[in-house]
Design goal:
The chain has five helices and seven strands; from the N terminus they run ββαββαβαβαβα. The protein has a seven-stranded mixed beta sheet with strand order 1-3-4-2-5-6-7, with helices on both faces.
């Protein structure tokens, strides 16, 4: 897909801040420090659109990015970061769950997992949740450039076994591996009617 424009629109801290123009949305969700901002920036070919940080748990809001003036990328707060208060973690979880459960504009949820590690309990819970609510979703196994081909193949098999009902795409924000495959999934989802 050719990106003609990509702009940050707003950060939403509750439902009243969500966009209201009815454009379709692609959501990105995953553990803190799994590389969501890097993946979004690499998909769009923009360096600093989604802010990356060395401090996990930095994204505490739902961030909306308008792409080609026709659809949104939606960056949800990372989960599972220990250094924030339980109350803050709980608020993030409620906000993300409300968005995922009730958002009519949502066309595709892209769950990010770290290809270097076995999926965590929280990764598995989120995937169960997506399946329970019958959400159109795929898995992006990030940081694929950090593994040898053999190790990546082995880890991808492990990820596919952990998520047998989900499509898994290996992704690297550094090399662009998986970029075309991910865009293909996004383009297909945008063609579909509301879920």
């Amino acid at each position: 897909m050719k990106i003609t424009s990509a702009e940050f629109v707003k950060s939403a801290f509750n439902k009243s801040h969500w966009t209201t123009d009815g454009l379709p949305e692609i959501a990105f969700l995953g553990r803190s420090n799994v590389g969501k901002s890097s993946l979004i920036n690499s998909l769009l070919g923009r360096k600093g659109l989604a802010r990356t940080s060395n401090t996990p748990g930095r994204t505490q809001s739902i961030n909306f990015f308008l792409i080609n003036e026709s659809f949104y990328f939606v960056d949800l707060p990372g989960y599972g970061y220990a250094k924030v208060s339980k109350q803050t973690r709980s608020d993030w979880g409620k906000m993300a769950e409300e968005y995922l459960a009730k958002r009519d504009e949502l066309r595709l949820s892209i769950q990010l997992v770290d290809s270097r590690h076995k999926p965590t309990e929280l990764d598995l819970q989120l995937n169960e949740w997506l399946k329970f609510y019958a959400k159109n979703h795929i898995i992006a196994a990030t940081k694929a450039d950090k593994l040898s081909n053999n190790r990546l193949s082995k880890n991808l098999r492990q990820t596919e076994e952990a998520f047998p009902e989900s499509k898994v795409i290996a992704y690297s924000s550094v090399t662009g591996k998986g970029k075309d495959a991910l865009w293909q999934e996004i383009a297909e989802a945008l063609k579909k009617e509301k879920i």
